[in-house]
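Record type: ASSEMBLY
Status: queued
Input:
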Amino acid sequence: MSGLILDNLHKSFGPEKVLDGVSLSVEQGQLAVLLGPSGCGKSTILRLVAGLEEPDQGNISLGGRDLAGLAPKQRDVAMVFQSYALYPHLDVFGNLAFPLRMAHEPKAEIKRKVDEAAELLGIAKLLAKKPGQLSGGQRQRVAIGRAIVRSPRLFLFDEPLSNLDAQLRGEMRLELAALHRKLGTTMLYVTHDQTEALTLGQVIAVLHQGRVEQVGGPREIYQRPVNRFVAGFLGFPPMNFFEGSVQDGNFVCPTPAFSLPVESVAPGPAVLGLRPEELTPGEGTLRGRLELVERVGGQSVLHLRAGEARFTATAPADFSAQTGAELSLDPAAARPHLFRGDKRIN
Amino acid sequence: MAALGAGAFCLLALAPFAWLVLTSFKTQLEVTAIPPTLWPGGSLEFYRSALTRYGLMHFVLNSLIVAGGTTVCTLCLGVGAAYALARLRVPGRPWLMGALLLVSMFPQISLAGPIWRILQAAGWLNTYQGLIIPYVTLTLPLAVWILTSYFSELPRELEEAAMLDGCGRLGALVRVILPLAGPGVFTAAILVFIYAWNEFFFALLIMTRRAVQTLPVGIALFQGQFTIPWGEIAAASTVATAPLVALVFLFQRRIVSGLSAGAIKG
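Status: finished
Output:
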């Protein structure tokens, strides 16, 4: 059976074009992540799938059924909102039971399903409490619980973890992955957090200005970004870009002055992208003066400068060097990403 | 200084009411005594007389029907209108809100003639609906304003969640929005009720038969050709006012929070 298919979605709010031809296909049971900076239209896609907005153009189908013109309640999708959107006047049981009551399920069945979901999410002891008495993490669980009780065909997650503190976010991330394995339901997950996207997503769609820039598995979009936006958006510290040109099988960069052999690339101007975590001080042709060492736990981020060009590299946490010191790096140690006119060419 | 000012204000505002209440517990002799007596002997004679000779409860019942009916009608219409104004994409929304405010500024005397004509043609003079309908039109703007500001405060995601959970728009309004907008709805209800309970001008104009007259009109007509029954008027006025005062005192916190919705983010 087919999963979720978005076909050429367009949406504008007044003069502002939010989605500009978005197509994406998610297989049944897959967890797909929409990743992009704020304002890229990723939440709008969720709202279109949910039926809270109608697309100006394009089609959405779920399990082979066209969703056009269907009210949200007819679509068999559940959504977890960023703000959780728990009903404040109902206790946790009431919140979890709400969708089942709307579906006129028998009382005993409602109780059984609510208990089951509460057990699964570890909130069985909270059933009598009101949302106002819960912590952020507990509210999050209730919101997820309300989505899973009625076993919908599709889950929509709108930045569900962004209101939690860092530690809890890490835990919930793992729990969500486990939950997906257990339920096997198709999920569409929106986030601007690349760690979340890379750890959770089986398929990741990177969005920018209302367009899908790249769709692929987490390893693929990290290792083979198709354009400069995707290359620069994923990875921390962000990828270094060096302006230069390809001549005689070599990429030649004027500042910082270095060259790197590249295979089967047509000559002409090009931009070389190198990931900082693949550049470490040692022997090599890429030289720069150390401006700042940023200690980020397990490693040190080195900010280097050569002439007008700035770039970053990484070193072990115990790395020590005077600022101003001249460092050498080996560009051949890093996987080269070559771009011309924004597109990848190698 | 501020406390003194507040004290003076309260005295000024409450003194006439206090005098009324005191008078209602006097005897006929005390009411007409010169020099006037301040403290009453504590007689219930005027209450007894107002209830039996002047049929006070009859007017109370009429007032309850009219004010209650007005409140129910105004809220039913007001909730729908306010929800649409707060949530749906209504073209010209600010103009509509302004027009509502404008309508409520019309002097009553300018409406009285046309309304009387319409009601006469409809045969609704001296009927409850003949008074309730004008009251609804007069109180609706206030109710819509209060409710709109209250609904606008509630997060949109709650309705969206409800709609995904299986409600239609109306279901989301009834099951999620209304329970949460309780204080706002309550505030609107109480203000509308008080207005309809106290209104005199239209009631006097439309209700000319004693059988359907409301409290304010009834009390005003206690007055005979040669006598003014001060004591009975005082007793009836106390009966008319006490429930409202009690209501407002009991719920003043909710009313204030309902009126100031939208002023600050909660």
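Annotation: Chain A has two domains: 4-228, 240-344.
Annotation: The domain at 4-228 of chain A is CATH 3.40.50.300 (Rossmann fold).
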